[in-house]
Amino acid sequence: MSLPTSISAYRVEQEAFDTAGTGDKGARFKLGTYEACVGFRQRLHYFRSLDRKYSAELYPAGTPGHGVSSYDEFEVTIIPDEDNEWWVYIQKRSGKILAVELLDNDHGLITVNPTDGEAHEVHQIEDRSDANG
After folding, report:
1. Helices (H), 4-129
2. Residue pLDDT, tens place only, 61-111
3. Bridge partner list, 26
4. Where in the chain are the domains?
């Protein structure tokens, strides 16, 4: 069975995204079974697709709102809990970046963009001297 193509058929999905957006990290929704979660996730993704299509019609090409959804910042995953009940998580994308280092603080240790147009490999220097003499 195909999904409805009218964006107004996805009020529950829009409310789920909006609810997730009110928290710092997102929200989760208990649906009980894996199959129910898969169906809800499919509707969430399709709603986002329709929202992008709607914004492409609403905003002119070349403007920031054209062809994007305000819900694109969310990732949707399915995760069971300790009682084997299934949940749909709608979380704000974090990129899961563990560390950030600005390259302007490298104190000249590496050359990121060589000026001669050639690629350069950086090799680690290994101490092979005999410590005993």
Report:
1. 11-22, 34-58
2. 999 999 999 999 999 999 999 999 999 999 998 767 777 777 766 555 555
3. 91
4. 1-133
Q: How far apart are CA 84 and CA 92, in angstroms?
A: 24
Identify residue 116 by its one-letter amino acid code: D
> Which among 87, 117, 89, 85 is positioned nearest to 20, based on CA atoms?
89
Helix axis angle, 11-22 relative to 34-58, nearest 10°?
Answer: 90
Q: pTM for the full model?
A: 0.69
* Cβ neighbours of residue 45 closer than 8 Å, sequence gap 6 or more: 76
Residue 114 has pLDDT above 80, yes or no: no
Cβ atoms of 69 and 84 within 8 Å: the answer is no
Phi, psi of 76 (to 5 degrees): -120, 125
The conformation of residue 104, written as its DSSP 8-state character, comes to: G
Q: What are all long-range contacts of 99-102, with beta carbons under 8 Å and residues at least 24 apart?
A: none
Q: What is the pLDDT of residues 15-40, one digit of tens each?
A: 999 999 998 899 999 998 999 999 99
Phi/psi at 41 (nearest 5 deg)?
A: -60, -40
